[in-house]
Automatic annotation (TrEMBL):
Keyword Nucleus applies: yes
Superkingdom per UniProt: Eukaryota
Coiled coil residues, start to end: none
Cleaved signal peptide residues: 1-22
Alphabetic keyword roster: Nucleus, Signal
Stated family: Belongs to the HUS1 family.
Species this protein is from: Malassezia sympodialis (strain ATCC 42132) (Atopic eczema-associated yeast)
Protein name: Checkpoint protein
Length: 293
């Protein structure tokens, strides 16, 4: 079993792991010949992350060998790995290897930096991992959700995050709703304070997914799902790596957010293996809805 690669996008990888650390720790990293996946299942406050990236968007000189179709899955403490990657900020070279220390598997980062005086500095960071068996990985499956009632491209997540941070001291639950006329609404729930934020003129993407089981007769009618504020913030914490985001609302059941990490096109495919031209990766957040009663 071998894994060796040059990390070419340290900031993106560190950002993904930092986001995952706020949801679930440990998380799983799945290395395959052409794809890299980060999985944070059964996280805090009913949030799960299923991220898929092209290997070339994060690594170069990528070499992987295993008896399982050249695929390797490891369990790692997300914050520990994110912290190790942050120490590589500004490095001229970062090499990732799967190795062992005293018989324990680990991910090793060999970091080359240059000091202000021009001297070369070699730094090694090691993070202990657990290698998953094939039988274990087969039990980790993406949740099945109903066909969403509405898909909508959200405003920049940083903008929504700023609004959510104002709401957090006022309520523990929010209602996220959208219609088929380009409107998205975030409202306070279960509080003596009444307030909401509404965005209009938003895009409804042409998705590669089945049509809703309940066609919308009134495009102005809102479909809604109630969410824990902390759960929503876990999604919004990906604002630093997000380029565009599609929110999919399954009324009364869950919200699914597809956070695209690069590029912008007219088609927004959804699902476990979502990818599109010009996009190097996507983070799929599944957030369980709350009973509004």
């Amino acid at each position: 079993m071998r894994l060796r690669a040059s990390v070419t996008n340290v900031g993106l990888l560190a950002g993904l792991l930092h986001t995952a650390a706020g949801v679930s720790s440990p998380c799983y990293l799945h290395f395959a010949p052409t794809q890299f996946r980060l999985i944070a299942p059964a996280g805090h406050d009913g949030v799960q992350i299923w991220a898929t990236l092209d290997v070339a968007s994060v690594f170069s000189d990528y070499r992987i060998e295993s008896h399982n179709q050249n695929e390797i899955t490891v369990e790692v403490v997300a914050e520990s790995f994110a912290r190790a990657l942050r120490s590589a900020a500004g490095a001229t070279e970062v090499m990732l290897r799967l190795g062992k220390r005293d018989g324990e598997p680990l991910l090793s980062l060999s970091i080359v930096m240059v000091s202000q005086t021009g001297a070369k500095l070699d730094v090694t960071q090691e993070v202990l991992v657990r290698i998953l068996r094939v039988s274990e990985m087969s039990l980790i499956t993406e949740p099945l959700c109903p066909t969403p009632d509405v898909y909508i491209v959200t405003p920049p997540l940083a903008e929504v995050k700023a609004m959510a941070e104002q709401i957090k001291p006022l309520a523990t639950h929010v209602c996220l709703s959208a219609n088929h006329n380009g409107a998205l609404r975030l409202a306070i729930v279960g509080s003596d304070v009444v307030g909401e934020a509404t965005w209009t003129g938003l895009e409804h993407p042409s998705v590669q997914a089945p049509a809703p089981s309940r066609p919308e007769a009134n495009p102005h009618a809102f479909r809604e799902v109630h969410l824990n504020v902390r759960a929503l913030q876990s999604v919004l914490n990906s604002a630093n790596v997000a380029k565009s985001t599609v929110a999919c609302l399954c009324t009364g059941y869950c919200a699914v957010f597809y956070v695209y990490l690069n590029g912008q096109t007219d088609a927004y495919p959804t699902g476990q293996h979502a990818s599109r031209e010009g996009v190097n990766g996507v983070m799929n957040f599944v957030v369980s809805g709350l009973d509004p009663t």
